[in-house]
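Suppose you are handed a protein chain with no further information: no name, no annotation, nothing but its sequence. What can you learn? This example shows the usual starting point.
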Amino acid sequence: MDFSHILNSKKITLSVVLSIFSLLFTYKAFAVQEQKTQEVAVESKETEKFDPSATILEHIGDSHYYHVGGHIAFPLPVILYTNKGLEIFSSEQFEEGEKVYQGKYYKYALIKDKIKAVTGEDRTIDETAGLVDFSITKNVASMWLSVLLLFIIFFSIAAAYKKRVGKAPKGLQSLLEPVILFIRDEVALPNIGYKYQRFMPLLLTVFFFILINNLIGMVPFFPGGSNVTGNIAVTFVLAVIALIVVNVNGNKYYWKHIFAPDVPFWLYPIMWVVELAGIISKPFALMVRLFANIMAGHVIVIALISLIFIFQTLGIAPVSVAFTLFIDVLELLVAFLQAFIFTMLMALFIGSAVEEHHH
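A reasonable first move is to predict its three-dimensional structure. Written in structure tokens, the prediction is:
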């Protein structure tokens, strides 16, 4: 059956709902922040100037607190390893970074959302502690949320296929089946060839992992949501996975093309440098493309809303809200597009590594 019209209608509805939901939550968050600023100004009889850069950096950055909405946040576990041993405690001990916590081995402070070992109340950083931070941060919690959603979605779809053998798909199965078939027929099969089935689980996992995190990150202050795919550390890990998969599965023709290309032998040293640079540059392009596009979308949306508070007038609000809504709808397209591009290029790189030699 052709489910394209159902999928398209649901995508349009999802686009409108997510865009309006994101806009309302963003505006509400800024309103709460502005109200707090005004209260402080009344108490101190001074007017504080709104700082959009601090708000933007706070949103796109990681944190040791699980932000739910507005000023509501829950502390997350802190796991530190020093040259004296392991320490585990709650980030609540820092009181949003204003307090020095006396641990078992060292004193610790939260400085610019980074945990540092300090030597005293003046928070002088102790470089001799050999501190390694394994804490559960907001980005980690958000990734766990996306992984949980992946498990729920795909286990339910797998159960539906087993239960409804030979029957038409229904519910969530009917919504996602066209997407799964699209990844198989338009991404994996054309780029990898007859060996595509071996890599389908990886391609589907990467596609839906990126897509879910992109969609969650579109709604500011979504419970557990954060700028995961706009964090270069996350895209770096995805790129390393692509690098390992491509080169581990490379056949003899792939490595022969790198180390013994069909050129005069005196050109081999130059070709080795070029080919090895190509091996690194391919996953590097994947990493930067996903990181830059997602982070830029977050920055633009918050910057447009910030115009209301920068000009301190509601006259700019209709223009700011209209452009924000437009960018938010565009970002919904980017969320799907970047997941597709990353998956397609990974399939293309895998296909070039496993392709058989043709005369």
